[in-house]
Design brief:
Blueprint (H helix, E strand, L loop, with lengths): L7 E5 L4 H12 L3 E6 L2 H13 L4 E5 L5 H15 L4 E4 L14 H29 L2 E6 L3 H4 L5 H21 L4 E8 L5 H4 L3 H10 L8 H12 L10 E4 L6
Parallel strand pairs: 1-2, 1-4, 2-3, 4-5, 5-6, 6-7
Helix pairs in contact: 1-9, 3-4, 4-6
Bound molecules: nicotinamide-adenine-dinucleotide (NAD).
Length: 247
């Protein structure tokens, strides 16, 4: 038996990168996956790729920070499938800059997508999970939310906020059998980290006890565990998948 057989799983920001990797792994484990991403063309390509490989998938182009859009889509998903088992709040962006010069618009943008988007999707999905008295919500944070980073005050605050939000949501939903956990990736090879200067990447790689950057698969594996019954007694936790970067 596959670990996520017949589960209905929504993954945000999953047209590419870590989100797509999670969707692919969930699909391999038997879930019907729902791709949600701002990038409409990317949604189509991601769904087509999953279907080509024989998996069950559908997609919606949407902005996680738009509560009306998300409410409508989640309602449609529930009406079609009669349940929603898993939500992964993965959509995230960076707008880096030193604090002294950081534009308010860059602060707001990162907060809106990363933190408010996580709040909106969690709020809109929980009513459906509560109806069935079962659910797993996984929030993708970052080690930056635990240790901070020069030039990423907005991103660090949003990810630290996600970790605190995860604990509060876990406490609120525990009596309804809905578990809420976070994953804090370290440095993972994706489009997002390709934007970092080479010397920064080299510096981080040296500081990682396991001596290499992580892969999308490393994060997806942890997300499968947190969505499956194997983690049924775990809630409110943040699991670092960072090669030992912070201990
Ligand atoms: N790559 C890393 O090393 C790393 C480390 C720690 C945490 N993370 C986190 O993992 C998550 C995924 O990162 P990634 O590296 O795959 O990034 P990525 O930029 O490759 O992918 C992010 C996806 O989110 C989508 N997106 C952006 N804004 C959106 C919005 N408003 N609504 C819906 N979708 C939106 C993008 O279109 C894109 O497809 C992010 O939350 C990121 O902060 C990444």
């Amino acid at each position: 038996m596959k670990r996520l057989e017949d589960k209905i799983a929504i993954i945000t920001g999953s047209a590419r990168g870590i989100g797509f990797g999670i969707a692919e792994k969930y699909a391999k484990e038997g879930a019907h996956v729902i791709i949600i991403d701002l990038f409409a063309e990317g949604v189509e390509t991601a769904v087509a790729k999953l279907k080509e490989n024989g998996f069950s998938a559908e997609g919606f182009a949407a902005d996680v920070s738009n509560s009306e859009q998300i409410a409508e889509i989640f309602k449609e998903i529930f009406n079609t499938h009669k349940k929603i088992d898993i939500l992964v709040n993965n959509a995230g962006i960076t707008r880096d800059g030193l604090l002294m010069k950081m534009k308010e618009s860059d602060w707001d943008m990162v907060m809106n997508v990363n933190l408010k988007g996580t709040f909106i999707c969690t709020q809109k999905v929980c009513r459906y999970m509560m109806k069935k008295r079962v659910g797993a919500i996984i929030n993708i944070a970052s080690v930056i939310g635990l240790m901070g980073n020069a030039g990423q005050a907005n991103y660090a605050a949003s990810k630290g906020g996600i970790i605190a939000f995860t604990k509060s949501a876990a406490k609120e939903f525990a009596s309804r059998n809905i578990r809420v956990n976070a994953v804090a990736p370290g440095f993972i090879e994706t489009e997002m980290t390709k934007k970092l200067p080479e010397d920064v990447v080299e510096g981080y790689a040296k500081a990682i006890p396991l001596n290499k950057m992580g892969s999308i698969e490393n994060i997806a594996d942890c997300c499968v565990f947190l969505a499956s019954d194997e983690s049924s007694y775990i809630t409110g936790q943040t699991i670092q998948v960072d090669g030992g970067l912070i201990m």
